[in-house]
């Protein structure tokens, strides 16, 4: 669940992922939004508002292992992350287009309750 400071960060970024442009304004979109630390906390990045941006879950995950020097500028890091996200999305797109889309896109969606193994957990 997002906090008030998370909401302020989303608002600052117009509820848009700063890396891929994902629209986080709808309910389903908002559910995918996360806070990204431009200079990651693992690289001693701060939790101050100027180091926080809105990112979709996919971009946050894709960039989660990137390392940066503490001296790198905000713009430099944002640009490197955007490039890496664009590259990763192209790779993932090829996998989806080759393996997933041809097999699954034409199939109808099933009701949640009919999905194997979920009956006992969904109430
Ligand atoms: Zn994104």
How would you explain this protein's 3D organization?
This protein is mainly α and 123 residues long. The chain has a single domain (4-104), classed as DNA Binding (I), subunit A, CATH 1.10.30. It has four helices and two strands, in the order ααββαα. The protein has a two-stranded antiparallel sheet. The mean pLDDT is 92. Zinc ion (ZN) binds at residues 17, 19-20, 22, 55-56, 58-59.
Number of helices: 4
Residue runs with pLDDT of under 50 for 5 or more positions: none
Q: What string, H for helix and E for strand, traces the elements in order?
A: HHEEHH
CATH architecture: Orthogonal Bundle
Structural class: mainly alpha
Overall helicity: 40-55%
Globally, the shape reads globular
Distance between the termini: 21 Å
Radius of gyration: 18 Å
Strand order of the largest sheet: 1-2
CATH hierarchy, class = Mainly Alpha
Bound molecules: zinc ion
Predict the CATH topology: DNA Binding (I), subunit A
List the helices and strands and how they pair.
Elements: H1 4-12, H2 27-32, E1 33-37, E2 52-56, H3 57-62, H4 74-104
């Amino acid at each position: 669940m997002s906090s008030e400071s998370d909401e302020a960060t989303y608002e600052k970024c117009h509820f848009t992922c700063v890396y891929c442009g994902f629209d986080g304004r709808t309910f389903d979109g908002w559910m995918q939004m996360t806070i990204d630390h431009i200079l990651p906390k693992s690289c001693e990045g701060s939790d101050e508002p100027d180091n926080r941006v809105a990112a979709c879950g996919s971009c946050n995950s894709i960039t989660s292992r990137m390392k940066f020097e503490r001296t790198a500028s905000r713009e430099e890091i944002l640009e490197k992350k955007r490039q890496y996200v664009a590259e990763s999305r192209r790779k993932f797109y090829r996998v989806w287009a080759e393996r997933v889309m041809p097999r699954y896109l034409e199939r109808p969606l099933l009701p949640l309750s009919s999905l194997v193994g979920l009956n006992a957990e969904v109430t």
